[in-house]
Specification:
The complex is a heterodimer. Chain A is mostly helical. Chain A is 66% helix and 2% strand. Chain A has one domain. Chain A has eight helices and two strands. Chain A has a two-stranded antiparallel sheet with strand order 1-2. In chain A, a hairpin with a 2-residue loop joins β1 and β2. In chain A, α3 crosses α5 and α4 packs antiparallel against α5. The longest helix of chain A has 31 residues. The C terminus of chain A is likely disordered. Chain B is an alpha+beta fold. Chain B is built from four helices and seven strands; from the N terminus they run αβββββαββαα. Chain B has a five-stranded antiparallel β-sheet. The termini of chain B are far apart. The mean pLDDT of chain B is 86. Classes of the chains: A mainly alpha, B alpha+beta. At the A-B interface, α4 of A face α1 of B.
């Protein structure tokens, strides 16, 4: 797959063509759980971006070493290692950020999007394309979380990044868990509409996994 | 047999290498983390008792909801300027961990929430200054949660009654403790006035 696709196309694919949340519909669980505010969404996105890139790179480097029969435990363990390293380094050197993100970092181990990129892409591709795919997918996820965060925090709390803009709460349900599903659905539909109307696409939206 | 080894050995190798990486990271980051946590705690305590000039000392431990907490005495030149207690109250979806500081006349001078995990948008409104500032200057008997307008007591945040109750209960337990430990002088003075 990677041989005839340019790295730029690969990068864009992660952000638009196969956006993890809006197109692949992977890792919707964290996408709903942490996007009650822009800040949480952004921080989670950054953590995922990092873990995703590192896991992709490691899996790609070890792809001929990992026995296909035990690939899933190997991938999960590689992810878990990177997550643990990040967790410990941040707890020691980035206290302020860690206090906000600490809760979410450990959850990244079980993210479907990371395992699926290791399985679908990094295990079949060379180092550089895997690295670019990790960055693209990570940025796609980050962008999706920020979009959802803006949508939900503005409607639910009337604020952005914790700063009050409206003096009211237009639609409180948006920051409740149920609102997360509304937001993901509406956003997915809206992006599909844009895709069809302006880019002649067929829209997307996958099966849905947690 | 040979096949099993071929599958297992690389997996074991990955696990061992990963284990080494993780333990090395732990070895180098853990002391830094402990140091940083200690410093943060000192800073938080300092914030609670801005008048204290001497290092704030742990005066003892107490327990609330079967969890151990510490309380502290802040002094300036050997004279007590504030009493501080760690405390917690059960909110709607989490234990709300707090620091409460009392001035020497047993009135609350500050309440600070250290850690909580209440519903975003509803329960987390207890973090707002307008709610927490109500505690300032109140004494033990005034710490009663009321749904509705009040100046004398504590007004619950509408839509966040459970979380407000958690904070109020936690603060009340801490104030009770500190009054029991240090309030003797105040009580005697009050009795003197009553006579």
């Amino acid at each position: 797959m990677s041989n005839n696709v340019s790295l730029w196309a690969l990068f864009k694919n992660g952000i638009f063509g196969e956006n993890p949340v809006f197109r692949l519909a992977l890792s919707l669980c964290p996408a709903v759980a942490v996007t009650s505010g822009v800040k949480n969404g952004f921080l989670m996105g950054v953590a995922v971006l990092f873990v995703m890139t590192m896991t992709n790179v490691t899996v790609s480097l070890l792809r001929n070493f990992i026995n296909p029969k035990v690939r899933i435990p190997s991938y999960v363990f590689i992810t878990a290692t990177w997550v643990t390293v990040i967790d410990q380094v941040m707890a020691a050197y980035q206290r302020a950020v860690y206090k906000e993100m600490g809760l979410y970092i450990m959850l990244i181990v079980a993210f479907a999007i990371i395992l699926s990129r290791a399985e679908m892409f990094a295990s079949k591709n060379k180092l550089l394309p895997s690295f670019v795919d990790g960055i693209g997918m990570g940025l796609g996820f980050l962008l999706a979380l920020v979009l959802l965060g803006v949508f939900r925090e503005f409607l639910g709390k009337g604020s952005l990044w914790g700063v009050h803009i409206l003096n009211a709460k237009p639609l409180l349900i948006m920051i409740m868990p149920a609102g997360g599903f509304f937001a993901v659905g509406l956003m997915m539909g809206w992006l599909n509409w844009i895709d069809r109307k302006f880019f002649g696409g067929t829209g997307g939206g996958g099966g849905g996994h947690h | 047999m040979k096949n099993i080894l071929k599958i297992t050995l690389p997996l074991v190798a990955i696990f061992v290498v990963a284990g080494v990486i993780m333990s090395m990271t732990y070895k180098y980051t853990h002391p830094v983390k402990v140091q940083a946590e200690k410093k943060e705690k000192e800073e938080a305590l300092k914030e609670m008792a801005p008048d204290a000039t001497d290092p704030i000392k742990v005066a003892g431990t107490w327990s609330a909801d079967n969890k151990p907490y510490e309380y502290y005495q802040a002094t300036a030149g050997g004279k007590s300027v504030a009493y501080i207690a760690e405390t917690a109250g059960k909110g709607y979806s989490s234990f709300i961990k707090m620091l409460v500081s009392l001035s020497p006349d047993m009135k609350i001078s500050d309440v600070k929430i250290l850690d909580m995990n209440e519903t975003p948008g509803l329960g987390d409104q207890v973090l707002e200054k307008s709610f927490l500032d109500q505690f300032k200057g109140k004494s033990l008997s005034q710490i009663v949660l009321i749904k509705g307008e009040t100046k004398e007591n504590i007004q619950a945040v509408s839509g966040a009654t459970y979380s407000s109750r958690g904070v109020t209960n936690g603060v009340k337990a801490a104030v009770q403790l500190l009054v029991d430990k240090y309030g003797a002088g105040i009580k005697a003075a009050a009795q003197e006035v009553a006579k």
